[in-house]
């Protein structure tokens, strides 16, 4: 081949003018952050979690210019409650989390559906279908439905911006929180986003009636009834909103898409023999009237949705339907994992182009701890301490970079379930007779959800050993600050009542593995609760800081 | 026209930066751009990829379908092979041949290079020495952008402009270093093209 463009590309004339003043190329997460600023939000709260992190990260980084209060919180529940307080006094407020974070915030989330939301409260939840960085692929649409709050599901970064703007107004109109459901590919995909005018911030003024915020049974019954009574009006809003669109077409088949599944449909549409009738759903509660209208007279419908078969189940029910419902439960699409253009091709019966293969067995390359990571030394010490025991140890793990301690070459951790679970699980295992029982947990995860189970262990002086890996940062999601500085960790733990003889703060170091191992061994031999805080800075955080300092010295940006 | 590029490499190699520069070049050229990234845990020394989709019409899926990418642009030879099923029959693999060995079962390098040589179209460049020659071992991503540049439908100066703009905030030295890396990659790519 000669030089020039790829032969299979139609060459674009080089004379084509470049477009000046292009709109910014934003991550879905950044689009949400920008929209919150433009909607006049006064505050934003959250806990880092992939793929939601960049929303609040953007707002924290730009707080100086925007004047918006943006705080990383101890966990999703505290974040949600702070958002609720801001709403209570009339401020517009955003709260962000990943899908499993909503489980942590479930108590305030579900109950806040009953109060008379004052300033618009938008709950942004980033789902992770395919589990790129998560322990499950739960679908937040189900939880919005459970709480009976409206849910918006963008298909593009532009919609992420527009829907966030609208969500604030919607929340104020219906006096409920509004859940914005994102998915990984939208959060972490970039596209051009055109912003609209910035709204002024609403003035802070308290709600009118305390009874609308005090969920004593008598008030709660009234407010629950009001929430139920409002559902038809919310449903009417959904059906008339621009986020739901019905495209009629003659013919026996129909397609339903939700969120980014619409993009997969657009990809295959030109190849279909005829255009099917199509309903796109970007807002919930489900637009039942439009669903019925779509299905009138058709023989089959294919439901393309990212996540659970949410609408599909609603259509299918348990009684025979006159319309064949195709989707994840019928086997036309995989139940697990994210939608792919390939899976969608299969569902339409379209052929696949030929594929090349390497002709070579390729090794997996899973993520791993950074070279020299202090966690690796801690794992070496734990393994060493557990050698030669005549009982079978249990090592409960937790969530963070150090979860990689479950994989070779460390193979030390034996569980990872949810934030903070290691301590409660070690206690349960110990109560049931397992010896020794260990919990391994990072500093930020400990502050998030480890303190309360530790108090349980203190209350019973449980025979177990907790190892807190303190690297002074929320490393996995990109070095956000921990809720408390590391110097406060030891007094905090001491304050719960852990016996001072069995509370140790030690430096982790490659040359001190033996020492740490001996200490762990000594404490697992102690027939009560021990806590060892192993501290050493995250290398990546130190590197970033050095780089930033060097750049500052040279007069550039890091 | 459409231009689907799978960018690949190992977490920390600069795959996202390469994707960002290429995406910017695409939209300055008037194309609609969708750029998928990988964040979070997989960035830690694991296999990473970015799906970059560009077209002169609206872009559909957020992901590239198997058998349909015009290019695989990889910073590591094994990672180039990993995404082969996504390449179209007429697509090209542009990859660094410098191995990133952070796994115990890394295959024999000659076998990897042979597999690359057996592809219908490939441009294989030993990027690491060129990056060091340019002034930083981290510039292998820009070396590979240079190697890919003759195969892209953008004027070279537009791509060079994006490289310069991308690093401008880091100071003049960093910009110059990356422009050298780009030029070295371009020359090596032209020589390696088959």
Explain this structure to me?
The complex is a heterodimer of chains A (558) and B (194). Helix content of chain A is 38%, strand content 16%. Chain A has 558 residues and is an alpha/beta fold. In chain A, helix 1 (28-38) crosses helix 2 and helix 4 packs parallel to helix 6. The radius of gyration of chain A is 26 Å and the shape is globular. The two termini of chain B are 23 Å apart. Chain B has 194 residues and is an alpha/beta fold. In chain B, strand 5, helix 3 (109-117) and strand 6 form a beta-alpha-beta unit. In chain B, strands 2-3-1-4-5-6 form a six-stranded mixed sheet. Chains A and B meet through strand 8, helix 11 and helix 14 of A and strand 1, helix 1, strand 2, helix 2 and strand 5 of B.
Summing up helix and strand content along with how strands pair, one would put the structural category of chain B as alpha/beta
Distance between the termini of chain B: 23 Å
Low-pLDDT runs of 5+ residues of chain B are none
Number of separate strands of chain B: 6
What overall form of chain A do the CA principal axes indicate? globular
Radius of gyration of chain A: 26 Å
Major sheet description of chain B? 6 strands, mixed
Number of helices of chain B: 7
Straight-line distance between termini of chain A: 41 Å
Mean residue pLDDT of chain B: 94
Strands in their spatial order, largest beta sheet of chain B = 2-3-1-4-5-6
Strand content of the residues of chain B, in percent?
15-25%
Overall number of strands of chain A: 19
Oligomer: heterodimer
Helical residues, percent of chain A:
25-40%
Strand order of the largest sheet of chain A: 3-2-4-5-7-6-12
Please indicate the percent range of residues of chain A in DSSP E strands (runs of 2 or more): 15-25%
Report low-confidence residues of chain A grouped into runs of 5 or more. Answer: 1-19
